[in-house]
């Protein structure tokens, strides 16, 4: 019986230490991007190369409320927002969040519901709004 308890304890310690190491790695990754994005040329290039996809994903992050949970998804969401903010300013991020808020007030979609967020992502209205925002904030984007 004692052997079983020790085994379970070892497994729990292993899981806990893996989670701590993952959190440290995510923090390091976010800090690395912060450092890299201090160079305006790099920031602009990263923004131009991926603005459309980043705006799409920031909207989904917002829909799923990833900005509120501290997880690997939170780190990815934070990095996306840093790239968009540095390259195009906060305006585009706020516009996509406002668009999502309006969609949810209509009752058609629900926050933190994966199926609902994916429906929104696939909707022509969402894709049109993303296109409008990219054109507005990234003149050099293709």
| Shape designation | globular
Helices and strands, in order, run as HHHHHH
* Class by SSE composition: mainly alpha
Rg is: 19 Å
* Helix amount: over 70%
Average pLDDT metric: 79
Largest pleated sheet: none
| Tally of strands | 0
Distance between the termini: 65 Å
Uncertain residue ranges: none
Question: How much strand?
Answer: under 5%
Helical stretch count? 6
Briefly say what this structure is.
The chain contains six helices and no strands. The chain is an all-alpha fold. Helix 1 runs parallel beside helix 3 (72-88) and helix 4 runs antiparallel to helix 6 (124-137).
Describe this structure in words.
The chain has 142 residues and is mainly alpha-helical. The protein is 81% helix and 0% strand. The chain is built from six helices and no strands. It has helices at 2-36, 40-64, 72-88, 91-105, 114-122, 124-137. Helix 1 runs parallel beside helix 3. The longest helix is centred in the N-terminal third of the chain and has 35 residues, at 2-36. It is globular. The protein starts with a helix and ends in a 5-residue tail after the last helix. The model has no long low-confidence stretch (mean pLDDT 79).
């Amino acid at each position: 019986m004692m052997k079983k308890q020790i085994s379970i304890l070892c497994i729990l310690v292993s899981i806990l230490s893996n989670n701590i190491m993952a959190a440290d790695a995510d923090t390091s990754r976010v800090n690395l991007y912060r450092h890299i994005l201090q160079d305006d040329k790099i920031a602009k290039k990263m923004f131009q190369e991926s603005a459309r996809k980043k705006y799409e994903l920031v909207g989904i992050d917002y829909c799923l409320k990833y900005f509120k949970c501290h997880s690997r998804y939170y780190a990815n969401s934070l990095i996306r927002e840093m790239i968009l903010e540095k390259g195009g300013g906060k305006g585009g991020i706020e516009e996509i969040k406002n668009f999502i808020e309006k969609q949810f007030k209509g009752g058609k979609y629900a926050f933190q519901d994966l199926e609902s967020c994916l429906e929104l992502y696939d909707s022509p209205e969402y894709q049109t709004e993303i296109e409008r925002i990219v054109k507005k904030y990234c003149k050099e984007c293709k």
